[in-house]
Amino acid sequence: MTVERFLVRVSRHDEQNATASRIEEYARRWFIWVRSGVPSVELERCH
Asked: For 38, what's the count of Cα atoms within 13 Å in the CB-facing half-sphere?
């Protein structure tokens, strides 16, 4: 599940004391990747 992996990675960034801007950059790039054509990703599960 793509969304679950995203959330795990965000948690890891947080555990490693990444800055908010670093986490935001990761999330921004992930959303760009998702919208570029990955089929059937359930984005509503992020809310």
From this structure: 12
Say yes or no to pLDDT of 44 above 70: no
Residues 6+ apart with CB under 8 A from 3: 41, 42, 43, 45, 46
Q: What is d(CA 43, CA 32) in angstroms, rounded to the nearest whole number?
A: 12
List pLDDT tens digits, range 6-38: 999 999 999 999 999 999 999 999 999 888 876
Task: Tell me the C-alpha distance between 27 and 24, whole Å.
Answer: 5
